[in-house]
Design goal:
Rossmann fold, binds magnesium ion, Gyrase A, domain 2, alpha/beta, binds guanosine-5'-triphosphate, Four Helix Bundle (Hemerythrin (Met), subunit A), six-stranded mixed sheet
Length: about 425
């Protein structure tokens, strides 16, 4: 296997850059840059030279022999001055060596996985942690990185394997009638597992939202101040605001942080009967997006919140806009004024309270479709085993349990499906 190297820090210039080298030959780094070898795991100051014995840089270097390293392989770190030229020289010099090459995306983490340092859910957790932008994304990713999801899946899998070993033992004594208590006990355990899995699948929507953002859509008649609100909240003029009705046509998305929750906030076209084709398309888009949302804000400046075409049970929050104008509002809606900066903080609190209520009781969440699909497949195998007659066909029951255990195992440790591995690790940044 090649020895790989890459900068573990950003591609731009910076105070320091860390070049990480991992692989069998990594400990040859001192020889490659003509400096005296250093004690393992001790940060040491060294001067690096190229093949003409010209100085490349003064650096802090650390040798980390495997397997006690991040990838499980021999690792060598060079902390250079954060210059693009120095980095390039180091790369060029390393690349001349046989068996050395620049790492692909996520390749360090992939090697850590292949060497059993982490499981796949932890690898995904690392990537989510790097990409986390809000407090709740941080919490969820760090839990997954620490192995909470891995532990939960391992428990389920072990339970299934245990039940399967029981069944296998019974197969060996197949002449004897299966005692009824054993079957009842067995089914009780399976049902309990299925219940746990079901509740995890149910809360996975929340897990995915924590990762990707909760979708909140602003709806309302034209000119009620939808675009003004999104501009105010994002602190930018993302949307055009005019006195004209029907200003906004397309959906405008901004990514925001509401009290630690990642939010994708959508501004939409004002809803009205119109002969304009463009506007009609915009209105349809608005309604479609609202239907896919976790929360809908219905804005009105005159107390009319009625949207006949909106037929979803999604939670709606009514917002009375332009409260500075003191217009009639039927006593409905949270009053806000973008003009006077009033009521918006309170509105955000109401939104955050609602999002908090969506949180499932369990803290360990399935955060990807891949996890959900695996658990669904495992569940259906377990359900199938429940409908099989244990006494007559214990082999079929054992086979279903085997399938269920494999499906769960695949979530944490796919080892033979290179394609899925690449799909996961290609989402990493270079150098990770
Ligand atoms: N007095 C007052 N005027 C406001 C307030 N918010 C928005 N407006 C005005 O209302 C008008 C319409 O605002 P927009 O934000 O464009 O309304 P919209 O709902 O996006 O309108 P469409 O895109 O046409 O559907 C503009 O002239 C804004 O300046 C407010 O809090 N108070
Ligand atoms: Mg608008």
């Amino acid at each position: 296997m090649d020895t790989i190297f890459s900068s573990a820090t950003t591609a731009q210039k910076s105070a320091i850059k860390i070049i990480r080298i991992s692989g069998k030959e990594a400990l040859k780094t001192p020889e490659i840059f003509s400096f005296k070898p250093t004690k393992p795991r001790v940060a040491t100051f060294r001067r690096l030279y190229d093949s003409n014995k010209d100085i490349i840089d003064d650096a802090m270097v650390i040798s980390l022999p495997g397997p006690a390293s991040v990838t499980g392989e021999n690792v060598f770190e060079i902390h250079i001055h954060g210059s693009i030229v120095v980095e390039k020289k180091i790369y060029e010099h390393l690349a001349k060596r046989r068996g050395f090459r620049i790492a692909n995306r996520g390749e360090f983490t992939k090697r850590a996985f292949l060497n059993g340092k982490i499981d796949l859910t932890q690898a995904e957790g690392i990537n989510d942690l790097i990409n986390a932008e809000t407090e709740n994304q941080f919490k969820s990713s760090i839990l997954q990185y620490e192995g909470a999801l891995y532990e939960k899946l391992k428990l389920w899998r072990n339970d299934i394997i245990f039940l399967r070993s029981k069944i296998e033992a019974l197969i060996d004594f197949s002449d004897e009638e299966l005692p009824e208590e054993i079957e009842t006990e067995f089914k009780k355990k399976l049902l309990c597992l299925l219940k746990d899995m079901k509740s995890s699948i149910k809360s996975s929507n929340y897990g995915e939202r924590i990762r990707n953002g909760f979708i909140i859509t602003i709806l309302g008649k034209p000119n009620v101040g939808k675009s003004s609100l999104i501009n105010y909240l994002s602190n930018k003029n993302v949307a055009i605001v005019t006195e004209e009705e029907g200003t906004t046509r397309d959906i405008l998305e901004v990514f925001l942080d509401f009290g630690g929750f990642p939010i994708i906030l959508n501004d939409t076209a004002g809803l009205r009967k119109t002969s304009s084709n463009v506007e009609k398309i915009g209105i349809n888009r608005a309604l479609n997006r609202a239907e896919k949302s976790d929360l809908i804000l219905i804005l009105s400046d005159n107390g009319d919140y009625h949207i006949p075409d909106l037929k979803v049970a999604t939670k709606k929050i009514l917002v009375h806009t332009k409260s500075d104008l003191n217009k009639e509002c039927n006593g409905k809606g949270y009053k806000i004024s973008v003009k006077n900066h009033e009521g918006i903080k309170e509105l955000l609190e109401v939104i955050v309270d609602h999002l908090k209520k969506l949180a499932p009781r369990e803290s360990v969440l399935l955060t990807r479709k891949r996890h959900v699909q695996g658990i669904k497949k495992a569940s259906s195998a377990l359900k199938k085993s429940l409908t099989t007659n244990f006494g007559i066909n214990p082999e079929l029951v054992a086979e279903d349990l085997r399938i269920a255990a494999t499906e769960i195992g695949n979530i944490t440790n796919i080892i033979d499906v290179e394609e899925i591995l690449d799909d996961i690790f290609n989402n990493f940044c270079i150098g990770k």
